[in-house]
């Protein structure tokens, strides 16, 4: 009897641990999902049941500056405040990290939900005392009400999640109520499967836009641009599928597939006796920010050692906003030592482009299409482009002007001393076979045929 009693007690303890957060004592994700499912089944009036999703603001600096013990103290204080405010009938959980959630069963109006959220935010803003220090965090809250159409736990939480991210992006509105009319339709599991299938089956192919030397009018390289050869919708530009790639976290998978195809195409060009010049590949943050991503890409390139001198990695400035900024800098330095050129894309558009030129070495800067498009129209664009070209010359790096589409832009860039350009004035994106044909002849630019051209904004 004693053994059975002890066993039952241990089982109950284990059952509790599997459904509760060890630090705060609140329910964990599993316990929350089960509680929300039960609440939806038991509630007679679904419209009175709401889900609050809470993400803390400015929490990471507390961990970084004062230790994880300080962070834990803040999390416990927030958990206690949330449980007190939500009330005894609510289901309150810490979903992980600094994210909390609550199911409130008896809120009769949207106004009441927003008032409660405002009360939560004020309570969370109260400072937490830790070892003679006063620690303070904010919060962003997304709220979703159940309904006849919105009655599944995963869907309800996803809607609250959308509202929460909207609140996080809006400094003036820290609590947002989900309204279907205000939010785009989220991608489905079917969308994810279709995208993964497209990547694996190589439906997403590289197309190549030539880079032209203005002085000689020769092709001096290409930029590889991904195109989805969709079996039903035809050829899709990145603007049509990159948001899905971002949402599903498939940047790394896409890069490795496309990069492999690019290297194989370059090898065909090499075998055909073509002077490839510099082939640019766009490299995302996830590859540069992790050792595994860097190693995987390096391993792929190692299979084509004769092509290293022809490779340029294009990165955009937003990669430096990532939390792994130092790792990204090390990755850039690593690939440069491997003999691969690095290009900073969309130069001049970011908040700290010039700062990056001080701390990192680049081989190429690409002028954003917005500056090129303003040449001869906006005097400020002329002045800025001249300045960028002077910076490039002073640093000893090549400047490439993107989005060149008119003769007047060509003339102005040539007068300003720009050496390399790309854009639909000189040709649209093309297949590898068309690129080989182009390299085998001496083209007379501008190309007269731009059939199938896609605007640079969609590239």
Quick rundown:
The protein is an alpha/beta fold and 459 residues long. The protein is built from 17 helices and 16 strands.
Describe this structure in words.
By secondary structure, the protein is of the alpha/beta class. It has 2 domains: 11-182, Reverse transcriptase/Diguanylate cyclase domain (Alpha-Beta Plaits, 2-Layer Sandwich), CATH 3.30.70; 189-458, TIM Barrel. The protein has 17 helices and 16 strands. It has helices at 2-19, 29-42, 60-66, 68-86, 110-125, 153-169, 189-200, 238-247, 251-271, 285-288, 291-302, 325-337, 353-359, 369-373, 379-395, 407-416, 432-440, and strands spanning 50-57, 91-96, 99-104, 128-130, 133-135, 138-145, 175-177, 204-213, 219-230, 234-236, 278-282, 311-316, 341-347, 364-367, 398-401, 420-421. Strands 8-9-11-12-13-14-15-16 form an 8-stranded mixed β-barrel, surrounded by 4 helices. Helix 3 packs antiparallel against helix 4 (68-86) and helix 9 runs parallel beside helix 11. Mean pLDDT is 86; it is low at 447-459.
Write the layout of secondary structure elements.
Elements lengths: L1 H18 L9 H14 L7 E8 L2 H7 L1 H19 L4 E6 L2 E6 L5 H16 L2 E3 L2 E3 L2 E8 L7 H17 L5 E3 L11 H12 L3 E10 L5 E12 L3 E3 L1 H10 L3 H21 L6 E5 L2 H4 L2 H12 L8 E6 L8 H13 L3 E7 L5 H7 L4 E4 L1 H5 L5 H17 L2 E4 L5 H10 L3 E2 L10 H9 L19
Parallel strand pairs: 6-7, 9-11, 11-12, 12-13, 13-14, 14-15, 15-16
Antiparallel strand pairs: 1-3, 1-6, 2-3, 4-5, 8-9, 8-16, 9-10
């Amino acid at each position: 009897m004693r053994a059975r009693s002890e066993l039952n007690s241990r089982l109950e303890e284990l059952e509790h641990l599997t459904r509760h957060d060890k630090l705060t004592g609140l329910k964990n994700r599993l316990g929350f999902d089960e509680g929300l499912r039960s609440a939806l089944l038991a509630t007679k009036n679904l419209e009175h049941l709401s889900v609050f999703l809470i993400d803390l603001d400015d929490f990471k600096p507390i961990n970084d500056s004062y230790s994880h013990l300080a962070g834990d103290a803040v999390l416990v204080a927030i958990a206690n405040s949330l449980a007190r405010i939500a009330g005894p009938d609510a289901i309150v959980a810490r979903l992980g990290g600094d994210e909390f959630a609550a199911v409130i069963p008896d809120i009769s109006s949207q106004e009441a939900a927003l008032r409660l959220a405002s009360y939560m935010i004020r309570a969370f803003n109260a400072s937490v005392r830790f070892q003679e220090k006063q620690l303070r965090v904010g919060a962003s809250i997304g709220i979703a009400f159940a309904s006849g159409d919105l009655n599944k736990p995963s869907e309800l939480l996803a809607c609250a999640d959308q509202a929460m991210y909207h609140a996080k992006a809006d400094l003036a509105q820290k609590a947002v109520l989900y309204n279907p009319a205000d939010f785009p339709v989220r991608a489905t599991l079917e969308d994810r499967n279709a995208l993964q299938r497209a990547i694996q089956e190589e439906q997403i192919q590289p197309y190549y836009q030539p880079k032209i030397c203005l002085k000689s009018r020769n092709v001096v390289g290409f930029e590889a641009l991904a195109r989805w050869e969709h079996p039903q919708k035809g050829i899709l530009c990145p603007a049509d599928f990159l948001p899905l790639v971002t949402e599903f976290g498939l940047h790394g998978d896409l890069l490795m597939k496309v990069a492999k195809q690019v290297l194989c195409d370059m090898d065909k060009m090499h075998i055909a006796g073509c002077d490839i010049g510099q082939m640019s590949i766009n490299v995302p943050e996830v590859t540069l920010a992790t050792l595994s991503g860097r190693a995987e890409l390096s391993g792929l390139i190692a299979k084509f050692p004769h092509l290293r001198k022809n490779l340029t990695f294009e990165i955009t400035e937003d990669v430096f906003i990532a939390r792994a900024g130092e790792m990204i800098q090390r990755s850039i330095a690593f690939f440069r030592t491997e003999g691969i050129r690095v290009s900073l894309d969309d130069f001049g558009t970011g908040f700290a482009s010039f700062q990056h030129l001080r701390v990192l070495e680049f081989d190429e800067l690409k002028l954003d299409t917005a500056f090129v498009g303003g040449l001869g129209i906006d005097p400020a664009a002329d002045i800025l482009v001249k300045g960028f070209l002077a910076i490039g010359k002073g640093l000893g790096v090549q400047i490439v002007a993107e989005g060149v589409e008119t003769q007047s832009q060509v003339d102005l860039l040539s007068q300003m001393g720009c050496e390399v350009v790309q854009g639909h004035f000189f040709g649209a994106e093309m297949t590898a076979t068309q690129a080989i044909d182009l390299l085998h002849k001496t083209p007379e630019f501008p190309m007269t045929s731009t059939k199938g051209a896609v605007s640079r904004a969609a590239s």
